[in-house]
Design a protein that fits this description.
about 70% helix, Tetracycline Repressor, domain 2, homodimer, DNA-binding, mainly alpha
DNA sequence: CCTACCGATCGGTAGG
DNA sequence: CCTACCGATCGGTAGG
């Protein structure tokens, strides 16, 4: 581990990481800009040198999370796996983004959405929809293979909901690794293999 | 509709209903006790005549929601329906508590849990566990009938997660009535009928 | 339940 | 990025 010299760019990155962690743990309204400044060793006014406002920091956390999640999702959805395996791979990647060590960005997106102003919602929405579109691809292929017992929209929202809710209860000790959880999700949602 | 004379008891009830609505819409930390007082036509200090603190009001909202949900859940779980029908009835009741007109209490429980102090969490937990226990009964009967392709705990948490997440996307116009959604949930989670 | 109020805190800014 | 600060707001209370 070499320590980088502090630059504007990596100070900004530190603020994003720390803000994500605190927003997740205490909520957007429950976290003060002073909490964030303290956690990175800045004075209370200094975060506003890097971000226009507290809301801007929140939106940036969400964008960062989506930007980090998209490549894996696109690779899986656009790849050549069979529908069943594609579904499980997508579930595993999704769980990783939501439960993985230091992955606080997507939970913030999920739970603090209403704290964004309408304009900032618009700013984040485009990338959010690009992510949802990957799930739609996977669900459409399942449907085409006769593996979906209900309509694609309802199925997708239920699956994603079940995965997202895992942040509320998952403990790696009790529930096993993420890959094992993904297998259970697949067993639960898809009809048994013939 | 007859208008009741204002008593301490029904003023308290008004505060609970209004607080539930505002906590759900704007979050606990995003709602001020002044917002709540305004919405029921009181002065800013008056809610504290009915509740010791803002946190006490939050915990009371949650308890109220659980107290209202428990009878239906216990009737279904303890009833004589076949496992498949019992599951669907439970899902419908759960969706009703989460999506129904004026039912803001349970969503507050789901999304503002972390805002409670440890002592207040303890106060609410007992009733919360009583509700979860009804789901456990239903899942155990499904399992005994060979209708669960994975372990009961994981299945229960996924199902409840999928149902709870519906508050984020459900629109009665686009998604149909709750009873129809419950049927889809049942089709998605349970193996096809022979 | 209202009046009148307090102490603390908060997001944000000017100037360097 | 720090210093020094402001205007606004917030949960809560004493006294009636």
């Amino acid at each position: 581990m070499t320590r980088l010299p502090p630059t504007d760019a990596n100070r900004r990155g530190e603020l994003l990481r720390v803000a994500a962690r605190l927003f997740r743990a205490k909520g957007y309204d429950g976290t003060t800009t002073r909490d964030i400044a303290d956690a990175v060793g800045m004075r209370s006014g200094s975060p506003f040198y890097h971000f226009k406002s507290k809301q801007d920091l929140l939106a940036s956390v969400m964008e960062e999370g989506l930007l980090a999640s998209l490549p894996a999702a696109e690779a899986i959805a656009g790849g050549r796996l069979a529908p069943r395996e594609k579904f499980e791979a997508m579930a595993r990647a999704h769980l990783e983004m939501v439960l993985g060590e230091g992955h606080d960005f997507i939970p913030v997106l999920l739970y603090e959405w209403r704290c964004l102003s309408p304009e900032l919602k618009e700013r984040v929405r485009a990338q959010k929809e690009r992510y949802d579109a990957q799930w739609q691809i996977v669900m459409a292929e399942l449907d085409a293979a006769g593996l979906l017992p209900t309509d694609q929209r309802a199925a997708r929202l239920m699956v994603v909901g079940a995965l997202n809710y895992s942040v509320q209860w998952y403990q790696s000790a009790a529930d096993g690794p993420v890959s094992q959880l993904a297998r259970k999700v697949s067993a639960l949602f898809l009809p048994p293999e013939p």
